[in-house]
Structures are given as structure tokens and as C-alpha cells.
Amino acid sequence: MRRDHWRRYNDSLDPATEYVEIYGKVVGHEFPWDMNQALGFALFRTYAVPGIGRLLDRTGEFTRRTQKRYDDTALLLEPAYRLGFEEPESRAAIRRINQMHRAYDIPDHEFRYVLSTFVVVPKRWLDEFGKRPLTPNELEASVQYYRTLGRHMGIKDVPETYEGFERLMDSYEAAHFGHDPGGRRVADATLALMAGFQPAPVRPLMDVFSRSLMDPPLRAAFRYADPPGWVEAVSRGLLRARGRLLRFFPARKDPKLVDDLPQIRSYPDGYRIEELGTFPVPGVAGCPVRHEEQATG
Fold first, then answer.
1. How far apart are the C-alpha atoms of 228 and 116, rounded to whole Å?
2. How many angstroms separate the CA atoms of 210 and 193, rounded?
3. Are 127 and 133 in contact (CB under 8 A)?
4. Going by C-beta distance under 8 Å and a sequence separation of 6 or more, which residues neighbour residue 184?
5. Would you state the pLDDT for residue 282?
6. 280 assigned to some structural domain
7. Residue 230 counted as domain residue
8. pLDDT in tens, 165-184
9. Which of 217, 198, 206, 193 is nearest to 266 (CA)?
């Protein structure tokens, strides 16, 4: 297969109607590692919004069962872009996501913000670190894909264009990023999990490497120390070099699925979509936390 096979394939499709096919090829074939990193980093950014980070901390899911929460998130998000929104597995996954969210009094503006990170962060990641940027067709497919996901989740006033998603994310972060001890605990637990995925000799370096990929407002919200300038330059330079090297690799023939990732460790004997995620029980740890109990950040 030619190195540019999936770019040419995606650009031959109509992103207005074939956005699932295009987006699925972006995630599973063309940029599997990059999209996994970028989508994980997109979620990580949301912890810097005190209303989100505090809620996640109070449920305990991200701090006591970090691996399971990581696995469940990836497994629930995959069916729709792998199979399409109307397939039974995808409908079950979205139903499970909605059931979890309905257990909490989450304002619509937070849902819109989280959705915007899924569109904007991967585009910016690939611009800087990917073997190539997304084509206009692929970017439009991403927009349409997440607009559809937003509709299935009942999110109102979702932007119609990439520029709209970008404005939403940047303005929301400027207005809402701030420090919260709960958000910091969730961020620390997530970084510890990510470090554990690496070979033992490099784990001590993962903290400074991770901080090197964060922008200053994100580090400030978590009160993480800025890394030395040369460390940031080397860290980002290594990822850029990786992207340039991948330009010479042939196109991936088979998709890289979530089940193929060594980081997914919670279900060695398999799983059922309906049993993934959280099932809050009132009166015990992890019960629903109402937003009116929380001060906004």
C-alpha cells in the first residue's frame, strides 16, 4: 500500500455523509498512536476546569480505579467510529455513557467544552507531532462526527465548524481554567497511570516529559512546575522527529483497535458494553455529586 493510501482514500469520500468512515480511518489506520495520545490529552485538559476536576475526584473513579476508568472510556468511545452510530454495540455504548452522565448534575456548557477538546486537541497535536496534518476532508469529518456524537448525547448548541469548536475551547479555558485540589489529584493519578505504561527505565522521566507537552495555562491550573526550557525543546523535538520518520512507513493495512492496545488491562476475559463504566449507588463512595453542592471555579 502506498504511504499516502489513507489520505487519498479519505479525500475521495464526502465528509458530510461519510464522516464515520473517514474518522474511523483516521483513528484506526492513519494515526492510531497519535490519536490515542491526543484524545487522552484532550480529556486530561478537562481536569483543569474546577467543576469537572472536582466532580471526577469526588466520585473516586479516577483516583481509586484509574486503570479501569481509562479502559472503560476508551472502550465506550470506540464502537461509534468503528461501526457507525446506528449499530447495536454503538447504541449500547452511547446509552451507557449517557446513563453515567445523568447520575450527575452536569451543566451543558461543560459537555460542550469536553466535546470541543475531542475536535481541537487532536488537530493541534497532528499539526505539531503527526506525520502530516489532517486534510480539510478529515477535519470536516471530525467536526461532523462529534456533532453527531453530541446529538446522541443530547448536548445543545454544538458548534457547526472547526473554527467554532476552536473558539469555544480556547475561550472556555481562558475563563474557567483554575486550580482545584481535586482536579490536581485526578491529574496526578492519570499521569501515574501513563508512566506505568512505559518501560521501567524511562518511568522516572515521564513526569517531566508530560509537563513538557503541557502549555503554560494548563500547568498553572494544576500548579505543576515548568520544566527546563531545554527539556521541553528536546521532548517536543523527539515527537516531531517521530512524525517525520513515519512519513517513510507504508500505510497500515489493518486497523489498530482499542482491544489491541497493551494499556487496556482490566478485562483479560472479555467484557460486555452494558457492564462498563460506573454505576453510582447513593449513600456510598462514588454516589452522584450534585453541582449545586460545588462552588464554580
1. 30
2. 12
3. yes
4. 53, 222, 223
5. 57
6. no
7. no
8. 999 999 999 999 999 999 99
9. 193
User: In this structure, what C-alpha cell is assigned to residue 91?
Assistant: 447504541
Mean pLDDT throughout 89-97? 97
The answer to whether 142 and 119 have CB atoms below 8 angstroms apart is yes
> C-alpha grid cell for residue 36?
490515542
Helix ranges, the chain (H): 5-11, 19-25, 32-46, 50-59, 61-64, 66-83, 88-102, 108-129, 136-152, 162-176, 181-196, 206-212, 216-222, 229-246
Q: Is the pLDDT of residue 153 over 80?
A: yes
Burial class (CB in 10 A: 0-12, 13-18, 19+), 11: middle
Could you tell me the residue range of the domain that residue 63 belongs to? 14-203
Q: Is 78 left (phi over 0), alpha (psi -120 to 50) or beta?
A: alpha
Residue 135 maps to a domain? yes
Does the pLDDT value for residue 45 go beyond 70? Answer: yes
Confidence label for 61 from pLDDT (cuts 50, 70 and 90): confident
Number of domains in the chain: 1
pLDDT digits (tens, 9 = 90+) for 250-295: 999 999 999 888 999 999 989 999 999 988 655 434 444 443 333 3
- C-alpha distance from residue 16 to each of 136, 140, 160, 292 (Å): 12, 8, 12, 39
Residue 190, classed as helix, strand or coil, is helix
pLDDT at 278: 86
Mean per-residue pLDDT, 197-219:
95
Evaluate whether 131 touches 248 at the Cβ level (below 8 Å).
Answer: no
